[in-house]
Amino acid sequence: MKKEEAKPRSFWRWIVQIFVVSVALSAVLGFASGVALEDAGYALAVVVLVLFILLGIAFDVIGVAVTAADPKPFHSMASHRERGAREALFLLKNAEKTSSFCNDVVGDICGIVSGSTAAVIVERLQSSFSARTILISIAVTALISGLTIGGKAIGKKLALERSTRVVLFTARLLHVFHIGSKR
Question: Which of 58, 29, 17, 33 is nearest to 158 (CA)?
């Protein structure tokens, strides 16, 4: 009986936590983007845009890899006390939450911020050409969509084929920053 009662409470706590994290992360990334784009030229605006697209793709890869990885190699690594093995097991044990955070929270925020970055680029292009043409907006939006979706398609294939490597790399990064397991 207690287990049934704990699940809904835990579920709602996760929803509240992910909401708060989403709002905070969105504010931080939006602020960073705004600061970087203020009085920025085309080159810097494109660099910011590409960074957000790549960040979204990278987190999408991690989210997919965590759901696809087999925990067996990580149990073996943990028994040999390899760096990152415990963090990898933590990620896999919490695959649903990890995937939700990586794919939905970070991925969606990167998509939103790259969209607003695209709007800045479109506005500056239109100002440069003294024209308010919809063709500039369509071209930039189509290019960004293609890069994002194509990049995520390549990333998903990589994540599925090399899930153990992706999870271990991610876990070792978490290990360096002491995130994901009790020491």
Answer: 58
